[in-house]
UniProtKB/TrEMBL annotation:
The chain crosses the membrane at residues 99-120, 173-195, 215-242, 262-281, 287-309. This is Stage II sporulation protein M. Keywords: Membrane, Transmembrane, Transmembrane helix. The lineage of its organism: Bacteria, Pseudomonadati, Bacteroidota, Flavobacteriia, Flavobacteriales. The keyword Transmembrane helix applies. InterPro entries: SpoIIM-like (IPR002798). Pfam families: SpoIIM.
Amino acid sequence: MREVYFIKQNKEKWLGIEQVIQGKIKKNPDDLSSLYINLVNDLSFAQTYYPKSNTTVYLNHLSSQIFQKIYKTKRVEENRLLYFFKTEVPLLVYQYRRYLGYAFLFFTLFTLIGSLSAVYDKDFAKIILGEDYVNQTIENIKNGNAVGVYQSGSTWGSTIGIIFNNIGVGAKLYIYGIFGGVGTLWALLSNSVMLGSFQYFFYDYGALQDSARGIWLHGVFEIFSMVVEAMCGLILGASILFPRTFSRFNSFKNGFKDSFKIFLSTVPFTVCAGIIEGYVTRHALEMPLSLNLIIIFGSLVVIGFYYFIYPSIVNRKINNQINDAVL
């Protein structure tokens, strides 16, 4: 069957499913399951005969949306907040997982640029981090206290300021995606270059190990969240640039709704990073090295599992439930 005829034959059905997803048409769970099964059949046909077509991309997106619609009805039986973090966000992360890959790719590239710039220009760190900060840190390193900058101010006051600052940085990474994703990449470039030059600066002064013991106590949650927030900005930008078969406005609405939910999921990690930085990092060099490593790698396991592994587990579980219901 020619693709044009395939589209013409099923267009009204697909538009009707869009209406259901947007809540303009109400369906009971059984009808939703029937729509999903029908749509999966269309998707399988398109993947077989038009594997690189926009039709296949569109049907895949539509299937994901109706897939989530079916299981949102379970929120009546579950705690809404628990459902949000346990099911809804992981499904969205799985759906947009390639954007998380793009965000990490750009983050790695930009961080390397920052490090290499610091290697070839000894004044680069002063330009990026500020001369006063660099001079103060050099003095701290000479005094054997590489993380001395984190010991200033009160614990609670520092914590509140850090949390609001980090949320502000994350919001910029996300909202700047409205400029077709370019704004997000610019914000990610600025922060990643700073991180790269920051780490090389400590290496250059022989204090990389001491700095890592402190910085990465809170840095795992903070930096990983920053990359996920960049992912959200890229999703937002892509929804504007690549609307597929949706109108540009509807594509933007869908992209904003999905990306904002993922963005909200980073807030608890950002808050935890602020608390650790305000209360724990200042004691980094007094702590046993084993405790530093437990916190650092424990944080990495938690957030890495949530955004990289758990989404696949949830997606597989829901798929199995759908297949059991169909059978």
